[in-house]
Design a protein that fits this description.
The protein contains four helices and no strands. The chain has one domain. Helices cover 55% and strands 0% of the residues. Helix 2 packs antiparallel against helix 4. The protein is mainly alpha-helical. It starts with a helix and ends in a 22-residue tail after the last helix.
Length: 93
């Protein structure tokens, strides 16, 4: 009986540790898949011509969010920045 309790305790600790490996900064895996569909595939998107979508920044960040939430791999998001003409800039600092 004691070994069963220890086994259950160990498995719950292991499951908690694995859950913490996922980065949900952009939402859950399902939510980030919807972000990817919205910003990258633009399926039925009425805002497909807005600057955040056309600049590809939002798509790249959606891909990073999806990788972090679904696969556990995490990268820093690209900052959103534009010059006076509305052209995306690499480093808005």
């Amino acid at each position: 009986m004691r070994s069963i309790v220890i086994l259950i305790l160990f498995s719950s600790v292991l499951a908690t540790a694995q859950a913490q490996d996922k980065d949900i900064r952009g939402g859950t895996c399902e939510q980030t898949k919807m972000q990817y569909d919205h910003y990258c595939t633009k399926k039925g998107d009425p805002t497909k011509d807005e600057i955040y979508s056309t600049a590809n920044i939002a798509c790249n960040n959606a891909k990073r969010n999806m990788a972090a939430a679904c696969d556990g791999s995490s990268e820093k998001d690209m900052p959103y920045g534009f010059d006076q003409n509305g052209t995306p800039v690499k480093d808005p600092s």
